[in-house]
Specification:
Tumour Suppressor Smad4, ATP binding, about 280 residues, about 40% strand, Rossmann fold, cytoplasm, alpha+beta, six-stranded antiparallel β-sheet, 2 domains, NAD kinase, 5 helices
Length: about 280
């Protein structure tokens, strides 16, 4: 098995990566950061996002395993003190996997050039120095004229991030949908929006045509781009998916409960009990 390592610069991360390097030197695994079978990310969800974009062109060939060196994240099933257990799972690997949908983003610039991106969590378009004016099309038909701070289009796994903070629904990743949420929309006689998060089916195509001329920023997950030359952005559910090695994969709703509710439940008297 060819193993790639991708981590941050914390001391805990360095300890974990040194342990894997030692095993590679002993012949247990082959260290290959260029064309790995499995990418082990060490750090947190941000580290895994970085690894996803780093290996963007090899998604059909690799699986990811996330080790968290802090508290448990949405994409990280293992803790830094569980490396021995993970190593045993790697040795017994049978190709187990679970996959999540991605967002396909095509950007057309005013000069006629196009750029293509994939998002694991979300894509956003916003204006940092005023109000964003943007036409919103669904399957080629004008749906609304947006006026406000910006728009967020999220994947199901991204629904627990920025989208949730904007009032969006938390969506299970088996639902291959994308969700658009508004950032501080303004409604008047000229600019009217639904003023509600919208969930789009797998075959829907969303097109954004901004009318603002400066101060626009587009973000794909944690990566930001100058948006001032954008003519339109087309978004849809990607035909590609990201795959994780499912040795011990935490169920999605368990992740949601752990992240936002915690290990507590109400007893019949309405008081909290620690589980």
């Amino acid at each position: 098995m060819k193993v790639g390592l991708y981590g941050n610069q914390s001391e805990k991360t360095k300890e974990v990566m040194n342990a894997f390097n030692h095993l590679c030197q002993q012949g247990e695994f082959t260290r290959d950061d260029e064309h790995p079978d499995i990418v082990i990310t060490v750090g947190g969800d941000g580290t895994l996002l970085g690894a996803f974009h780093h290996y963007r062109n090899q998604l059909d060939q690799i699986r990811f395993v996330g080790i968290h060196t802090g508290h448990l994240g949405f994409y990280t099933d293992w803790r830094n003190y569980e490396v021995d257990e993970l190593i045993e799972s790697l040795k017994k690997d049978k190709g187990e996997r679970v996959s999540y949908p991605l967002l396909d983003v095509t950007v057309k610039l005013k000069n006629g050039e196009t750029a293509h991106y994939s998002a694991l969590n979300e894509a956003t378009l916003r204006k940092v120095n005023g109000t964003l004016f943007c036409q919103v099309f669904i399957n080629g038909d004008l749906f609304e004229n947006f006026r406000g701070d910006g728009l967020c289009i999220a994947t199901p796994t991204g629904s627990t991030g920025l989208s949730k903070s904007l009032g969006g629904a938390v969506v299970h990743p088996r639902a291959e949908v994308m969700q658009m949420s508004e950032m501080a929309s303004i409604n008047n006689r000229v600019y009217r929006t639904l003023s509600s998060p919208m969930i789009f089916a797998k075959d829907n195509v969303l097109t954004l045509r901004p009318e603002s001329e400066e101060g626009m920023v587009m973000a794909i997950d944690h990566l930001t781009y100058d948006g001032n030359e954008i003519e339109e952005i087309q978004l849809k559910i990607s035909q590609e998916r990201i795959s994780f090695a499912a040795y011990r994969h935490t169920p999605f709703w368990d992740r949601v409960e752990d992240a936002f509710i915690g290990s507590r439940e109400l007893n019949c008297n309405g008081s909290e009990e620690v589980r």
